[in-house]
Amino acid sequence: QVQVVESGGGLVQAGGSLRLSCAASGSIFSVNAMGWYRQAPGKQRELVAVINSGGMSDYAESVKGRFTISRDNAKNTVSLQMNSLKPEDTAVYYCNINCRSWNGLKTYWGQGTQVTVSS
Predict the structure, then answer these.
(1) d(C-alpha 11, C-alpha 22), whole Å
(2) Is the CB of residue 82 less than 8 Å from the CB of residue 13?
């Protein structure tokens, strides 16, 4: 079984910074793409940033230049550094990991971590 656990959410004022972290554990053979999604109240879940096993990343237009995704392949972790936060960044942030384990190639989600940006 694979477990995905996020940490690092919280309350911050507009213009501030937060760093989210996510760790995957269990009988993992290999990890492919790792990403962050978010879901604001009344809205659909949307992709924030994704990074592949080679380190190439992509971002939603709304966060480009403010957020940075990174990963540590040796530890199966992915982080999201969020700078210049805006109230519209308020959402529950979810970690998403595609990996191969004893259960085959699957995508796993974390439980979510709340990010609240006050104006």
Answers:
(1) 18
(2) no
Q: Convert the pLDDT of each residue in 41-70 to its tens digit.
A: 999 999 999 999 999 999 999 999 999 999
Please name every residue paired with 97 in a beta bridge, in sequence order, or none if there are none.
34, 108
Q: Do the Cβ atoms of 49 and 63 come closer than 8 Å?
A: yes
Question: In sequence order, what DSSP letters do the residues of 56-73 get, joined into one string?
Answer: -EEE-GGGTTTEEEEEET
Q: 8 is written with which tokens? A: 């690092």
Q: Coil, strand or helix: which one is 88?
A: helix
β-pairing, 10-13 vs 113-118, is parallel
Expressed in percent and rounded to 5, the helix, strand and coil fractions of the chain are: 5, 65, 30
3-state secondary structure of 25: strand
Dihedral over Cα of 6, 10, 14, 18: its sign: negative
DSSP 8-state assignment for residue 119: -
Interval 90-110 mean pLDDT? 96
Which of 11, 65, 66, 2 is CA-nearest to residue 34? 2
